[in-house]
Amino acid sequence: MILPVLALLSACDMVVMAPAGDIAGQQRDLLVISTLLMLLIIVPVMALTVFFAWKYRESNKAAEYEPDWDHSTSLELVIWSAPLLIIICLGALTWAGTHLLDPYRPLDRIKPGQAVAEQVEPLQVNVVALDWKWMFIYPQYGVATVNELAAPVDRPIRFHITSSSVMNSFYIPALAGQIYAMPGMETKLHAVINHPGEYVGFSANYSGDGFSNMRFAFHGLDQAGFDRWIAGVRQGGQPLDRERYLELEKPSEKVPALHFASVEGGLWDAILNMCVEPGKMCMGEMMDIDRKGGLTMASVRNTMPLIYDKYAGRGSNPAYFGSDDSYVMTICTPLQAAAAAAERTRRSELQNAERGPVDRAPLRGMGLVPPGVPMASLSLSAPASAAPNA
């Protein structure tokens, strides 16, 4: 009877129970130990259920009949003490695992019995969940890839994860547990791969039409193999700038692996702050404005239409708010303000050059002193309109 069940399970991928990374291995151990602790209660209860049903069946006339039985100190002790001890063990195990396996916590070991060397620098990978593909930026090497990830064996990996639009979940079962990718936010994951091989990563959170094909290849390589892989990305890739990123950001399915030999400076911060488009205010700038108290009274028109005010036209009365656009497009930095002032000066000089020299002769007209006539010689009886213009 067991053979058919094993045959059905033969096609299952047991990577979760046989991972290649230390973090995933510890998570596997936590899962197994927790399950065994719970089975200490579940198995006896199921067995006793069958035993009582058999022993006290209707046809068993020899079974004890004790209608006045209502208490057993020994039974009460077993019923309450055993689950309590298991709950205590599960609580301690969960508390320790929650802190030791915190995805934000830097690694202190590579594998059981081997601590992380002090001189080893973790590999940083910036992960962007796009529709429907994954982008990986290697800031230490200045390269980027789409739908392909590689890391050296026994070197800590530090993932910084975000999303371009909707929430996704970054998951490599052989490496570590899943961690969510959310737009405008940065989540982190620390992990390590201990065995070379080809593994699969995917999104574990439904995100639309192309979700099923939102998968990527993860290569676990030795250090020499990883160096060759980086060199291949640099040789066969194209530059990744903001314009190219905005093209990749558009929804697309079944995208093959792409390589980028260089990455524009500041692109990751722009992606994280949702301001890759030219002229768009970054979230960091917006939060800094809020931290400093907002834009004072000059920004009242920008914020009042957002308020649901039953006394002031529900935020749409042009007589109350004015007829101009009522939103902040961007706030310039001091360097940008200086550049804008220099540009205005340059344009003004160009316009003056196009108009030619200006006639600076004194103007004549009603109420103005005629040229060459001193003010003292004017008649005191002159009308007020002839007096010098103050």
TrEMBL record:
UniProt keyword terms in alphabetical order: Cell membrane, Electron transport, Lipoprotein, Membrane, Oxidoreductase, Palmitate, Respiratory chain, Signal, Transmembrane, Transmembrane helix, Transport
Subcellular location field: Cell membrane
UniProt keyword annotation of Oxidoreductase present: yes
One Pfam family from the record: COX_ARM
Keyword NAD: no
CDD domains for the chain: CuRO_UO_II
Transmembrane segments: 30-54, 75-96
Organism domain of life: Bacteria
Domain Cytochrome oxidase subunit II copper A binding: 120-232
Region (Disordered): 343-366
InterPro entries: CcO_II, CcO_II-like_C, COX_ARM, Cupredoxin, CuRO_UO_II, Cyt_c_oxidase_su2_TM_dom, Cyt_c_oxidase_su2_TM_sf, Cyt_o_ubiquinol_oxidase_su2
Chief location bin: membrane
The protein's name: Ubiquinol oxidase polypeptide II
